[in-house]
Amino acid sequence: MITQDHTIRKLLIANRGEIAVRIIRTCREMGIETVAVYSTADAMCLHVRMADAAVCIGPPPSAQSYLNVNNIIMAALQTGCDAIHPGVGFLAENAAFARKVEEQKLLFIGPTPETIELLGDKVKARNTAKRFELPITPGTQGAIKDALDAAEAVKLLGFPLIIKAALGGGGKGMRIVRSAEELTANLALASREALANFADGTVFIERYLENPRHVELQILADGKGGVAVLGERDCSVQKNHQKLIEESPSPGVSADMRERMSKGAAALFHELKYRGAGTIEFLVEGDSFYFMEVNTRIQVEHPVSEFVTGADIVREQILCCAENRMELPVGPQEIQGWAMECRINAVGPGTVTRLDIPGGHGIRFDSFLYAGYTVPPYYDSMLGKLIVHAKNRERAIARMDRALSELAIEGIKTNKESQRWIIADHTFRSGTFGTSYYETMSKEIEDAG
Ligand code: MV4
Fold first, then answer.
1. By alpha-carbon position, which residue is closest to atom 11 of ligand 1?
2. What is the CATH number of the domain that holds 183?
3. Does a structural domain hold residue 122?
4. 297 has catalytic annotation
5. pLDDT tens-digit map of 342-361
């Protein structure tokens, strides 16, 4: 492998919203100039104003702007950038994009296209994880091609089962089946849906766990085999596969489980000579954990890991990719206190008429909102994230409640009151919830706000 020594002077951010703002902030501290890109719907966006330069890349629909590979690469070349940071979503896990970026001698802030491709295929990722003695969810070794393969899976696993698309992820293209009839009825449908959404009809089957925790480890790796593990995040509070609250540590992970997860994860990322930030996802049920998938990007919820480790994950990510080094020591990082994040989502369109941002010790609000901003209807509903850090979970919850009470967003409807209901709920406070928590409580949560 060729070791890169690629100090960046100017970086294009192929994204919008709060993550673009987040990346610009670290770049400014590192002395890296930034170029924002924006659609015609986003001319008034905060990331456009904050960057050193901005290039319009197309009309409002993402397919013609934030997913427009040629326009984005052209913008980078024309403004003299050396690197592209894809942020989260959009092109962040697109191996073909990463490859085209490299072909233009631009540095992609992320893993190599080969690594993105390998880990983006869940069947390949499962078989890779198995080699490092990471327990994987009981399921089929390979793709399910026909009814015969499916019958084999039933014999091995019983019901309930979950059909997943090999190139899916984040809950897209999943189908839960509870009987042989349902399996037969859903197999072809799932495959056709996978083909339509991911251009590949490959599906596989796992035993379905009813109410596991969703736990993920934050990884940084230098591309030469050095791996830092920044503890875990619990992301079990989700609505339709949209995470709502994340925290670190996880209330359901013991020191022993953390060590076993970290060891296996570190071995996997070491062997792949992984480069940059990544997340390895597990399902946790009691004392057992099962590997699920790897996300080859920085994630929305990274600030909870920044609070408990003190690291700047965007800075480390840039160093890993540009210079094959990290400032963090290799190995498991020391974890301090407890961090929690509430995502603040718009519940409808409109113009923000007033914005009061919470402050004080242990509070961070990552957002692209400002008073006067009009939320366009084209993109993700997330407006920002409120993140708190305190000594322990109880104090973090008290701080989150206080911070949410200070946050005022007028002119548009948000999910703020729903978030307050959840953090006041005794099941949430007990720390014993799993991924079906939101759905079980949805009526009360939604009545609150
Ligand atoms: C599962 C599962 C239970 N059993 N797989 C969701 C996102 C994607 N990464 C995989 N996901 C899951 N896979 C098995 N074998 C539970 C989830 C899951 C989930 C399922 C239904 C409703 C909400 C969920 C939240 C997190 C994870």
1. 171
2. 3.30.1490.20
3. no
4. yes
5. 999 999 889 999 999 999 99
